[in-house]
Design a protein that fits this description.
CATH class of the largest domain: Alpha Beta
Helix content: 10-25%
Distance between the termini: 56 Å
CATH architecture of the largest domain: 3-Layer(aba) Sandwich
Strand content: 35-45%
Strand order of the largest sheet: 21-20-19-22-26-27-28
Shape: globular
Radius of gyration: 35 Å
Structural class: mainly beta
Number of helices: 15
CATH topology of the largest domain: Rossmann fold
Length: 1226
């Protein structure tokens, strides 16, 4: 039966008139449907779709699409669906909680309703701007399901109409380079599903074309209009800058700037350092046109922002992400709470490509730099077997289910390369779990040894699917293939072949902790050059990011990591915000992949020896066969900072004009797609005739405050040098060209510059404009006329003031803080100069409007320096006609030059926030709050050492649209009272909130924490007991590698076999590469009653034992004892039958319940006649046992009972609590 359904969804009020509309249609064919039969039912697939939905929802396909749209507000959507019912009845499996980490959790089948699933065919999941281009993200559901009847309906054709309203303000760069413009245009074309609409809707950029003149560049900080454009920002720390600045983009055809967080912290205001960095990146994007951000440094030094998103089991979690610095529209907190990025109104389309290398010190940074240069074949150095490395990619796909019963990894990777054939020269090596059953291609078994072999063989890209964790990457773990721990990566020796590893797995890229990706990047003799993976837990239906990464290379022919990740991020943004946040690139974003055998270019420079008097240099680029290379990137630069970039034409040639200074060398770098970077050095000799060059000196203020900041209306002495690098003297007339930004004197002067000498000119003065409203870099064109004519542009930064309101205070005579008819009050306005230039002084004029009268309508304003705060008081009265609502008034700030800045206000006093909350650390306190008034637009936070003491404002500027504040650094053990006030949109401040007391957390004990290293970690609670009789408990904890560590309070190991390492107290018998060793907590007791304590613990690994050791780490007689299943829950020790001897109680993961005597014998053997006794008892419930048993006399009969919280019952899906007496009776 064929159905036609029409649906309209209006996002805003229906009274809005549609300004424009856009249509899009898509068809789905029944030939593209696939069925995957599982134990739980059928998973329905569709070509170019992913299984999508929350855990427990039917396994149905979804298609994510992105549409370029007009730059107008999205008002609504209409769609019409042509549907056909598929023959038959279908039992669709639920989406399981199958995570590629260490565990596969069982779930009940979803209790579907008898309604269609999903409840819509088209869902809007995002609407925002990508570098000024409006993107609307939709999820389409080609299959609908009616569970009550088992019907599947194919939505074979969907016709969509999007309606748009008013024009929206678009945040785009003032200017950008051709490289950045090309990157953005190429990315846009590869991402949108309606590329035919790009000419109609895309935003034109102001592209600063390459001039092909080798000359100096103007760069300032903070970014200032008039600067030259920049492609790449390298963001690092002062201590790491010496290494990371060597990723200078000029070698690879981009202009770059290295900026440190220390510079940003000093020059920007914001809620915290991440907000300061974001403000800087917004400036760099707007003024410089930046398209790429490379972060050099661990999150400890260059912090990440934690985005807030809902995972696949509907839990909201904080996820570390660098996209806060790349998605630059808005403030990433549109709902003004204390979380970031969770609202669909928060920008999720990155304007910048972004990558990070989380180096903790110079050594790690240097290791990565060396790897990058080797991978890139810098200098044309080709290691042996490099052609195999750059043309062979590895597919490593694991089975993900318990018992190794599925082919998820193999099926997905094979489907990926079939759907999108690779570049022509690329071939694949395959490692799969169960390769005989899971693939028709040639493949070896995925296991530790084979994976290690292939890493050392060399593959440029490794695509991996498998169970993993923060410290472990699985190689067929569920099939006995083991995997790599962090320590295994540390000892890799696959140099000089450093792959890019793309892994679909959990937490391998959790760079806010120690994680696998960091060991991959910083392994000194092996590892890789980039890692793409998840910072937090992922679910099976998230694996589309791996496929999208591959598709960006195979279909869209992208080769730059940052470009590729841009496509991955936009895909994730249109699919799942949680998936967007957990996806992370650990590596240099401008790293180019080779998708064909690398070309070693032959570079020729004409002339091969230059003179400063030469005016033209030509570079020719060809391959080793002599064929010209078109579109190769050529960079020319000199040691004194002059540079130019261009691209070869179809003849393989490009020419540059000189504007040389005193340089003795010219560096020429050639690179491009599949081209090994090659450098040539050309020597520059002095000319035989005169050669004049102009060099700036530091300008000097002749008037003003003489503070080395050049400000409005100041007279500036503008000195410079005229240098003659030639062998003949030169007589010239020197002049400065006229400018709209200044007037100058004198008009010109005549000088003679001797050969090989210079003349210093300090006679020109510039009277700066007094009308500019924004700081700007002023070009100063100096011309030399005569027999030897030249000109050069020098620069002067003019800094202007930026007076901004801080708050408006209302102090009325009746003291109620309300605005009422006939009120008399003192209205105080506080302002702050956020500009670098000083405010020169002037007047502030009060314009009262119709509802206020003012006694003193004008007050003088003195000079206000950078970041200085000032306040002004006005005595006002409220009109008797005031009947509620806001009171409008204005303030006019007029400076001494007559420039006016008008501030319009609406006097509305907001209520204070409610529900102040605290979080803390050793040296920090965070205060969160909730706004209680819709008029609350911003906030101030105040701190005091006493409840009724003086409260001091802590924020430099109002906290706008955010409800959190971090107070750091603080002294350990300190505590303060905090109050928060609300400000209206015009910064009218209301009364403060009630105070909350907050304190820093306790400091760690001396010698703690202790790092066990080796890629090991703890997944359990420590336990304690005094084993040496000194009256002080020792601490024990079991690790995922099956090692039990024991420490004295001092941090000293109980058993120290090797002073150079942290040694375990004992270890369990586990698989060599297991990662589920111990997840339960143990007990310290004198079980065998010999006067000394024993230590007991249960394992989760394949041996499934309960262990007991003496104080010297040797086994206690009778132990270990075996269980039929692994243990997740803690051991309980209790004398349950009051015979004076302690029993050991364990409930394992497979729903079995055990009690042992102290000698290792099962408790039930003493009661063979009791059928309910637990030699072990199998609990009749479904799912995994998480609960720990308890022992108590709950019925008051004087006999101890054993209580256990079970999981879900099979039929009712309701959890049970079990209780037995000492004889096993329920």
């Amino acid at each position: 039966m064929r159905l036609i359904i029409t649906v309209a969804v209006i996002l805003l009020l229906a009274c809005y008139l549609y300004a424009s509309e856009m249509k899009y249609s898509i068809e789905f064919s029944p030939d593209d449907i696939s069925f995957n039969y599982t134990e739980s039912g059928i998973a329905v697939g569709m070509k170019d779709c992913q299984i999508s939905g929350e855990v427990g929802a039917p396994s149905l396909p979804a298609r994510s699409i992105n549409l370029i749209a007009p730059p107008q507000s999205l008002l609504g959507i209409e769609y019409t669906v042509l549907s056909d019912t598929l023959a038959g009845s279908f039992d669709v499996a639920p989406i399981g909680d199958l995570r590629p980490d260490m565990s596969v959790w069982e779930l009940p089948k979803a209790m579907y309703k008898n309604d269609f699933y999903p409840d819509t065919v088209v869902r809007i999941v995002g609407s925002g701007y990508l570098s000024g281009n409006h993107i609307v993200s939709l999820v389409l559901y080609p299959i609908s399901y009616l569970p009550g009847t088992g019907r599947l309906i194919l939505n074979s054709k969907i016709d969509i109409t999007l309606h748009f309203g008013q024009e929206e303000q678009v945040f785009i760069p003032d200017v950008m380079t051709p490289f950045s413009a090309h990157l953005r245009e190429k990315l846009l074309r590869s991402l949108v599903d309606n590329p035919e609409e790009i000419p109609r809707f895309s935003i034109p950029y102001d592209i600063r074309e390459y001039t092909r003149v080798i000359s100096g560049r103007q760069e300032s900080f903070p970014p200032t209009p008039g600067d030259d454009p920049v492609d790449l920002v390298i963001l690092t720390t002062d201590s790491l800058a010496p290494v990371f600045s060597q990723f200078d983009g000029l070698r690879y055809g981009v202009f770059s700037r290295t900026i440190t967080v220390e510079e940003i912290d000093e020059n920007y205001f914001g809620l915290d350092l991440p907000e300061k960095i974001r403000r800087f990146m917004q400036d760099a994007y707007r003024v410089w046109g930046v398209s790429c951000l490379f972060i050099g440094g661990d999150p400890l030094f260059v912090p990440m922002r934690y985005g807030y998103a809902r995972d696949a089991v509907s839990s909201y979690v904080d996820v570390p992400t660098d996209l806060y610095y790349a998605c630059l529209d808005g403030n990433w907190n549109s709902n003004a709470d204390y979380h970031f990025g969770e609202s669909l109104d928060d920008d999720s389309y990155p304007e910048l490509s972004v990558g990070r290398v989380s180096a903790k010190d110079i050594t790690e940074a240097a290791v990565y730099l060396a790897k990058y240069r080797t991978f890139s074949l810098e200098g044309g150095v080709f290691p042996d077997s490099s052609e195999h490395f750059y043309t062979d990619w590895l597919l490593a796909g694991a089975s993900l289910s318990n018992g190794c019963t599925d082919c998820i990894g193999a099926y997905f990777l094979d489907s990926m390369v079939i759907t999108s054939p690779p570049p022509e020269d690329i071939r694949f090596t395959r490692l799969y779990s169960r390769p005989e059953e899971c693939t028709s291609s040639e493949a070896d078994e995925l296991n530790y040894l084979n994976f290690d072999r292939e890493l050392n063989t060399g593959h440029e890209i490794v695509f991996h699917i498998g169970h993993s964790s923060q410290y472990f990457i699985g190689t067929g773990f569920k099939c006995g293939g083991g995997g790599f721990f962090s320590s295994d990566f540390d000892t890799l020796t696959n140099s000089p072949f450093y792959p890019v590893l793309v892994s679909f797995s959990c937490t391998v890229n959790a760079v806010d902790f120690d994680c696998i990706s960091e060991h991959w990047l910083f392994a000194p003799a092996g590892g890789g050059v980039a890692f793409i993976g998840n910072t937090r837990t992922a679910w099976t239906h998230h694996k589309g990011t791996l496929e999208r990464f591959y598709r960006m290379i195979a279909r869209n022919r992208m080769s730059c990591l940052g470009d590729i990740m841009g496509g991955v991020y936009v895909y994730a943004a249109g699919f799942d915000r949680y998936l967007l946040f957990i996806t992370h690139l650990e590596g240099y974003p401008l790293l180019r992949l080779f998708t064909a055998p690398p070309i070693l270019p032959v570079v020729e420079v004409e002339p091969d020896t230059l003179s400063l008097s030469d005016t033209l240099v030509t570079i020719s680029v060809s391959d080793t066969a002599g064929s010209p290379i078109d579109s190769a990137t050529v960079s020319c630069f000199t040691p004194d900072g002059r540079s130019a970039i261009g691209f070869t034409d179809e003849t393989g040639r490009i020419s540059f004009l000189f504007s040389f200074g005193r340089s003795e060398t010219l560096f020429v770098w050639v690179t491009g797609d599949n081209i090994a970077p090659v450098a040539e050095t050309v020597f520059v000799s002095p000319p035989s005739a005169a050669h004049l060059v102009i060099y700036p000196d530091t300008p000097v203020e002749l008037t003003g405050d003489i503070d080395s900041v050049y400000e409005l209306g100041e007279n500036i002495l503008f000195p410079f040098w005229v240098e003659n690098a030639g062998s003949e003297a030169a007589a010239v007339t020197v002049s400065i060209a006229s400018s709209p930004y200044f007037t100058h004197t004198p008009d010109d002067t005549s000088i003679v510059v001797p050969a090989m000498d210079s003349v210093y000119l300090d006679i020109f003065s510039l009277l700066l404009s007094d009308t500019l409203r924004e700081s700007r870099v002023l070009p100063v064109l100096v011309e030399l006329a005569g027999e030897h004519t030249t000109r050069d542009t020098l620069y002067l930064r003019l800094d202007t003031p930026d007076m901004q309101p801080l708050r408006i205070l209302w102090d009325d005579t009746d003291g109620d803080g309300m605005v009422e008819p006939l009120d008399e009050a003192q209205l105080t306005t506080e302002m702050k100069n956020l500009g670098v230039g000083d405010f020169p002084g002037g007047h502030l004029i009060f314009l009262p409007g119709s509802l206020l009268t003012v006694d003193n309508d004008s007050v003088p304003v003195d000079e206000v320096s950078h970041l200085e705060e000032v306040s002004f008081d006005f005595d006002v009265s409220v009109s008797a006609s005031y009947d509620g609502g806001g009171v409008p008034f204005s303030l006019s700030l007029v400076d001494s030059f007559g420039n006016e800045k008008l501030f319009d206000y609406l006097l509305v006093i907001p209520l204070p926030p409610e529900t102040l909350l605290m979080q803390n650390g050793v040296d920090w306190i965070k205060i969160n709050w909730s706004a209680s008034d819709s008029n609350a637009y911003a906030f101030n936070i105040y701190r005091s050492e006493e409840l009724d003491g003086e409260y001091v404002r802590m924020n430099d500027y109002p906290i706008v649209r955010t409800s959190t504040f971090l107070d750091s650094p603080l002294e350990r053990g300190s505590g303060f009272f905090y109050r928060v006030s609300s400000l209206s949109r015009d910064f009218v401040e209301g009364a403060p909130s009630d105070a909350i007391f907050a304190w820093t957390s306790l400091a760690t004990y001396p010698s703690w924490p202790i790092s066990i290293g080796g890629g090991d970690k703890f997944a359990t609670t420590p336990f304690f007991g005094d084993i040496d009789g000194d009256g002080i408990d020792e601490l024990f904890a079991g690790s995922i590698k099956g090692l039990v560590y024991g420490f004295h309070l001092s941090g000293e190991e109980i058993i120290d076999r090797n002073p150079a390492t942290v040694d375990p107290f004992a270890e369990i018998a586990i698989e060599t590469l297991a990662t589920e060793g111990i997840w339960s907590s143990g007990v310290v007791e004198d079980f065998d009653e010999d006067g000394e304590s024993e230590i007991t613990i249960a394992s989760r690994d394949i041996d499934w034992n309960v262990y007991m050791w003496e104080t010297d780490g040797t086994d206690t007689p009778g132990w270990p004892s075996h269980m039929a299943g692994p243990a997740l829950t803690n051991i309980v020790a209790s004398d349950i039958d009051d015979d004076g001897h302690i029993e050991i109680i364990v409930a394992n993961e497979y729903r079995r319940f055990y009690i042992w005597r102290r000698n290792g014998e099962l408790y039930s053997e003493l009661f063979p006649e009791s059928p309910g006794m637990f030699a072990y008892t199998y609990l009749d419930n479904r799912g995994v046992n998480y609960g720990t048993p308890a022992v108590a006399d709950i019925n008051g009969d004087g006999v101890k009972d054993v209580i256990f919280p079970g999981s879900r019952n099979d039929s009712t899906n309701i959890g049970h609590i079990y209780c037995w007496d000492a004889e096993g009776n329920e």
